[in-house]
Amino acid sequence: MPERTETESRKLLRRLQATLAEAGAGQERLDRITHIIADSLGCEVCSIYLFRDAITLELCATEGLAQEAVHVTRLRVGEGLVGRVASRMRPVNTDNAPAEPGFRYMPETGEEAFTSFLGVPIQRLGEKLGVLVIQSKEARSFTDDELYAIEVVAMVLAEMTELGAFVGEGEAMSARHQQSVVFHGGIGQEGAAEGKVWLHEPRVVITNPIADDPAEERKRLNEAVDKLRMSVDQMLSNAPKGDAEQIEVLQAYRMFANSRGWMRRMEEDIERGLSAEAAVEKEQSTARARMQTVPDAYLRERLHDLDDLSNRLLRQLTGQGADTGAQMPDNPVLVARNIGPAELLDYGRSLRGVVLEEGSVASHAAIVARALAIPLIVHAGRITQEALNGDTILVDGDAGVVHLRPEETVANAFRDKIAMRTAAQERYASIRDKPAETLDGAHIALTMNAGLMADLPSLPSSGAEGVGLFRTELQFLTRSTVPKRGELAALYSRVMDAAGGKRVCFRTLDIGSDKVLPYMKPQDEPNPALGWRAIRLGLDKPGVMRMQLQALIRAANGRPLTVMFPFIAQFEEFTAARDHLLRELDREAALGHPLPESVEIGAMLETPSLAFAPRQFFEMADFISIGGNDLKQFFFAADRENERVRRRYDTLNVSFLTFLGQIVDRCTDTGTPLSFCGEDAGRPVEALCFAAMGLRALSMRPASIGPVKSLLRRVDLREARAVINEAQAQGAQSVRPAVMEWLKRVG
Ligand code: PEP
Ligand code: MG
Fold first, then answer.
1. Which of 611, 608, 654, 600 is closest to 632 using CA atoms?
2. What is the pTM of this model?
3. Which amino acid residue places its CA nearest to atom 9 of ligand 1?
């Protein structure tokens, strides 16, 4: 890189710094900046276009184009050369702009006289802010050095935009992070919440993008990178040996921390006048932009690793840690790119809601959010870029929508919705101690699903008759090593204590597929939902399952014990799992430990195959519970985690209801108690239809018990069944419209 350009670029940055330090409104600053850039680079035109909304760019300042065009000329992303820079987030450099495909002549700017065009994106950490353009009359290609210099300036502009340096009255730019923004995401957990943003990882703010002394900045960078390398080495030597995934991530960190290319690029940026932290962020922005275009999931993960590493480095350099001293608001809504289950558990019930940029509906964090009954939205755009600590935020977990800094009218409508919910909750509380009995006298046992000790207080408050599904995997998912038998026995015992004699149905470990243990060797399976999971894993490698069974027997300590095996696809799997439990009971007896007063052994029916198992299976099982989440995904061959298809088939589809009716018949034949414990059991209309099909036990989230009971108490199941039969006879695809119509009639 020639020495001349480096000093030129530093000189330019110094002039920019001086002008930014001067007092003045946002517009004045923008005007001065375009003047300085054009003057320093010896070109006739410099223009700054900034985003007015997600798709519209506005000419906000110019040197060289007609001043009347400022705040008048607008372009959509993709429109003209400026729009092209914005859509691709890559520079456009041409010596014959009018000949370029997509060139758009804007008469109001008088730009036809300018032949050469260089436009670069103004972006911050992958967030599009605008486009910086230089133009000249002379037909020439701008050199790589000029391109580099203009990119560095664009980086500084991005930082200044972030800091609100161009905010002003009237036509000037309005402040960023002040407008209301709506995000649409996936529903991880339903519910509604209003609160204040609490960022899991507060963003690092760079207040000094420009620096005068490159030697000093290089020294700062090198020292910070050395510290980072040491801390990565330290983390690597402390990482649990069996934790291949964590080790892989740390090794990637180490590779990046030692990467010469990464260091060289940052040092070059420093030479051009950026501070050490601005150089790190410039690299990070480039990596983020790349991340958005890389289709390969593995490479994207590695770019994420680089992003994480850059964040660590920025914290080192700026001294801004995760603990910024900010006070957590009273009603925090956690906003994060992603979060692990253990971290989410640490926040616990203090959170009103959680909004993630990544995550998935079936992620561990979603499981925890569900257990904590806090609304969760996943895939919420780029919310970590937009949200600031303390911003007002509304989480509509029913619609999958997040309103950040909402307009007052939106907030009021939302508050009405929450108030209606609260009123309904009060109504439900009034029937808490009444039975779920329909008008025709059928009693439906409503129990709750749980997975944490923290769930148990909901047992009395919801009016649940017991715990119909206790998912035991959370204790395994939130740790870095397999929990010990003693710990598990103590926990299960506390769960039974808290249930105060009500039945708790413990489901043995259901892992694999989406639920991957941190310490389990990841299985490279082409289709994990159909893979080595749940009971398949338990039977093939029975060590952990046996340990868990022992813990359950010890926890019961003379009390009744209910155990359920997940994902049984054929009779033999049930007999094999049951034999394990019977053997453990014998062993415990031989060791002189007290046996449970009674033992119920059940199976989860989650694959259609089990519905057609031999009669002997139905006779042997003490009870059967339909895992509707899995059963439905296999019945319709529609992945429960895939947003595109997971809602495609209605649970009240006639085929599915008919199938449920067949399962009910088989269980009635053998007198086998049957329940339904998937998410659908907690939806009132679905619950009503299941009851009409003959199900007499439903297990659901505690918050659903009130609404389901309230509806069941108002209906006659014989009438409901007649409506279903009629819809079926009419050839309806789903019975929902007919049932809804009938419900309207009967009130
Ligand atoms: C189900 O599949 O319906 C179920 C209850 O189990 P999980 O959601 O934990 O797979
Ligand atoms: Mg399941």
1. 608
2. 0.68
3. 471
